Amino acid sequence: MLEGKVLNERYEIIKLIGGGGMANVYLGNDTILERQVAIKVLRLEYANDDEFITRFHREAQAATSLSHPNIVNIFDVGEEDQIYYMVMEYVDGMTLKQYIQLHAPIEVEEVIEIMTQITSAISHAHDNGLIHRDIKPQNILIDPYGQIKVTDFGIAIALSATALTQTNSMLGSVHYLSPEQARGGKANRKSDIYSLGIVLFELLTGQLPFSGQSAVSIALKHLQSETPSVKEFNPRVPQSVENIVLKSTAKDPFHRYQEVFEMEAELTHALDPDQLHVAKYEPPDTDDTITKAIPIVKDDDSVKNNPVDEETTIVTNGTKNEEQDKPKEKKKKKRKKTFIWVTSLFVILFGAILLALFVLPSLFQPKDVQVPDVSGLSYEEALQELEDLKLNVLKEEEHDEEVEENHVIETYPRPDDTIKEGKDITVYVSLGPEAVVVDDYVGKNYERIEEILLEEGFNDVKFYEEFSDRPVGEIIAQYQPSPGDEVVPRDTNVIFEISKGPEKITLNRLIGLHVDEATDYLKDRDLSADIKEVHHDEVEKDHVIEQNPSANEEIEKGQVVELTVSKGPEPKEPITHTESFTVPYTGENNEETDEPEPQEISIYVGDMNNKISELYQDVEMITDDKTFTIELTIEPDDEGTYKVIKDDEIIIEKTLTYEDVEGE
User: Fold this and answer.
1) CATH pick for 94-284 out of 3.40.50.1820, 3.40.50.970, 1.10.510.10, 3.40.50.300
2) Contact at 8 Å (CB) between 126 and 116?
3) CATH number listed for the domain at residues 439-499
């Protein structure tokens, strides 16, 4: 255990506050600057592992090169007794993962504020040639004021990376892993952008986009599955914000943001009025980017492919030479016949052209038709009217909040447009309002659920209040519709039962009651008693002297009521009384020696510690008057007695009661 150890005669380790794969994090105290710090200590089992030590130093070097308000500061790095440590800024807060678990789904405005801080930090790291490679909420801290701190650049890789850094390409967490990292590829700036998109998804929905039974199955989903729609989990997220998720998590890195600052800029303006209703982001069609091979045609090939051209020219020239040798008269007759045939053919062709242009179209071309307005008609009525106009009807069905089921919403082409007979016309037919599946809202805050349901178009949301041990405003029952029902929101009233907190009880006056009577009263009202007994000279034993809360106060069921109960008057303690007396010497001198004859003195005491039948002290012989002192210990309502015998004669016998000595 490292608690209590002082590193470098400066950093006192107080307690363990966290840990990771290769190091533990302790709360520490900088004894020189008198401030709290976080001390990251390499796990002792890796203290002799050169690779881990190298990685630990790499984290320190990477992080110390960064200075940004949203990146945890590194103060010091050192080693003592094979304890490798790094002293960092202490952030009094929690991880972003814990914050999501407590508050998800988080309001969009707060999500934007959090993400702009994170992207600012990562952009700064990229500008300094560092890639984080393990962006996840567990590596992001948030303090009570909403200040973000990105930490754990332990697997950050410099753009000018060495072979050592490249061996760690799969150290990132699989839930936030980019497709290129999942394939085993090297992480780059685009990988950090992908992980930022997953963090943004989790902030908006409170859930991860991909989950599975194993790390492999999750990695495959990053490779193969499109990112789910944020709006399916949280319909209140604007399209502009969802687009940032979709673009940053595009499978193809070329379709993501080129730099993190581009993502930060879009986050900053995502809630601008002109951005709230943008079209959904679709990645470009990758087929258009495929380079197609074009065959190369050589000059020799063109010559080889046209060997007949020159031959043909030669034959033509030969024929022409023969014709020049015919007689001139034969040439004139041939010209006359040719003229007649050509003229006749021209007349026939001209007539055919006129026929094709002006006569045949009117006989065979489809007629023009003006599209009628069939909106609001039943589909059968519209179908009959359009087919009568010799139009080819295509039916498309969709939900509509206004148009009755099986009735026409609109057509395309639109009413009054002119089209030809036989052309397609698409008729959009209503399926009626779209039904939704009702969630189970028990255990959730009523005001928040009411807001969501009204935004979804529910007709009315009502509630009834009941006493409950659940927090005030929490939904404790869902009367209608039941969870799992499919309903049309505009036609549905929702009724909940919500908690108004524990029932209040007006407390009676319990002072003066016997303790059993008071506790029975509390038990009947689901209250508990905390009993304290004290001595009291006036209140009878086992009766209530005081109560807290006091009478007529309103308290909740289950609350504890403090009762002070009398144990009766405080019992009196035995009193030790000191008694002094003088025994006179009454003997005579010895006739022979003229010395006083000794007298025998015996003292007997009867009290709580001594029996009157036994000597109180050894027999003493006196030859002169002597003063004796004894102690009598007398119990309440009792007495103490002592007697003094001189030479078998009782000279003093006295009894003292407790009252006689009380108050001394």
Assistant:
1) 1.10.510.10
2) no
3) 3.30.10.20
Among this protein's residues, is 134 annotated catalytic? yes
Query: Which residue is it, tokens 């005579």?
Result: 588
d(CA 515, CA 541): 9
Question: CB-hemisphere CA count at 13 Å for 24?
Answer: 17
**Closest by CA position to 108, among listed 279, 256, 239:** 239
Place of tokens 């300094």: 128
Pick from 155, 21, 158, 11: nearest CA to 78: 11
Number of Cβ within a 10 Å radius of residue 240: 21
Mean pLDDT by 10 residues, the chain (664 residues): 88 87 87 93 76 72 81 88 89 92 91 97 91 90 94 52 34 79 85 96 94 84 91 92 96 94 94 87 63 34 36 35 46 60 72 61 71 93 92 89 90 87 90 88 92 88 89 92 89 91 88 94 92 91 94 89 92 91 91 87 94 92 94 92 94 93 80
Rounded CA gap, 599 and 586, in Å?
8
C-alpha pair distances (Å), 9 with each of 5, 24, 78:
9, 20, 12
Q: Which DSSP symbol is given to 287?
A: G
The 3-class secondary structure across 200-231, one letter per residue, is: HHHHHHCCCCCCCCCHHHHHHHHHHCCCCCHH
Residue labelled with tokens 């979709």: 246
Architecture of domain 575-661: Sandwich (2.60)
Q: What six digits make up the tokens of 435?
A: 């039904």
Among residues 49, 127, 134, 530, which one is catalytic? 134
Q: Tokens 């949280």 map to which residue? A: 234
Helical pair 189-205 and 239-248, crossing angle rounded to 10 deg: 140
Q: In Å, how far are 452, 455, 488, 492, 645 from 458, measured between CA atoms?
A: 9, 8, 8, 6, 109
Which positions ≥6 away from 201 have C-beta within 8 Å? 207, 208, 209, 227, 230, 245, 249
Collect all residues with Cβ–Cβ distance below 8 Å to 548 and sequence separation of at least 6: 561, 562
Residue 372 vs residues 85, 261, 417: alpha-carbon distances, Å = 81, 53, 8
Instruction: Compute φ and ψ for 430, nearest 5 degrees.
Output: -75, 135
Instruction: Measure the CA–CA gap between 320 and 325, rounded to whole angstroms.
Output: 9
What is the model's pTM?
A: 0.45
Spatial neighbors of 409 by CB under 8 A, at least 6 apart, are 375, 398, 400, 403, 428, 429, 430
- Quick one: tokens of 542? 């086992």
Q: Does residue 40 have a known ligand-binding role?
A: yes
439-499 shares its CATH topology with 504-566? yes
Q: Could you give the CA distance from residue 629 to residue 34 in angstroms, rounded to a whole number?
A: 66
